[in-house]
């Protein structure tokens, strides 16, 4: 449903994504893993239609990413992006105005469960509260694809559980969930596929259960194997 | 597109509120001068009202260009480009908001000027004769009446809207074709100046540059700058759709 065909993105003096080809299918929760600067965010932004690839293309339902795909792809950026003048309530109204799949009721429930206040200005939110707001407003959409860039950043342990529950609630057979995070252990129990990106290139897309069964390693072990020179007992 | 326009208005309403408050203060100064016969207040009021009338139209246009720049070059760009709207709608909403604000503010200041002149004329009987005297001095080619004032104001407003469109175009070139390049801000400003000079020269092909009032010349100016605005809008939106990464 979401395909990346030999996608490359070059910035001045740097290749952020280098020839990534992969296919994401509904019914799976994917973890996108890689060190800082490996190209995860850039790839997600291309899939969200915010950045144009230098070459190659990202296809949604066999059509290049564009206005139509934005109706069905919900993207949560890792950086705060709301207007300064907005309150938490205004953010919900904004999404309601632009996304037909947005549910104000779900948003209100999530805002309450995350101890946010509808009247609070977004510019006065702490980084943790801002992170919760971004997740709530993204997950209140009934999208076909959710792409969450570092949704657990800045969130305390209890709120992380709430965020993970929200993500799991959204999962279904007809949806793709893609989550990037550095917190590999946190994702291990939630995702069933893992995409490893290293130095702008795709290392591989792994089945998490398959890793345990065939290679006898956890997702975190595999991460260390791919990205670290450190050799752990039982993995080498 | 209605929602896009609504949020564009929301972005600029604090700035417009400030203009409104400042104008109200200057108007109070003027009215104190008129009704309390304080000529210093009257002179200051008239001067400041004339200044704010001209400045506010410029400020609204420049604020529109600044807002576009922020919307393209900061993370808040996601608020626009994540939504299922193409660049023609996004830029169109910005242009409609800015142009309609410029027109509404211009009309409001003209209405305020007419009201203030009427108050002056009613209070100081000789004021009307003063206008007639000045017009007699200016002669047939240069005198000012309501028709000429309206036509020149309309041409100025359309001219300024086309300048704002050119500003949008320069900002978009900076964020697309010149993105990531050294001195892209300076280069886009140079492009703005260069195109501005070229457009002015091109207008000179169609009309002479006389200072006397001529209806045909004013109409050609209005049509010319309206066409320029449309061309710049289409070119800018095309660039955004095809070259912009936020």
From TrEMBL, chain A:
SMART domains per the UniProt record, alphabetical: AAA
Pfam families per record: ABC_tran
Domain of life from the UniProt record: Bacteria
Limits of the ABC transporter domain: 2-224
Keywords associated with the record: ATP-binding, Nucleotide-binding, Transport
Molecular function via GO: ATP binding; ATP hydrolysis activity
InterPro entries: AAA+_ATPase, ABC_transporter-like_ATP-bd, ABC_transporter-like_CS, ABC_Transporter_VariousFunc, P-loop_NTPase
UniProt-recorded name of the protein: ABC-2 type transport system ATP-binding protein
From TrEMBL, chain B:
Domain of life: Bacteria
Key word S-adenosyl-L-methionine present: no
TM annotation in the entry: 12-35, 41-68, 102-124, 157-178, 185-207, 219-240
Key words of the record: Membrane, Transmembrane, Transmembrane helix
Name of this chain's protein: ABC-2 family transporter protein
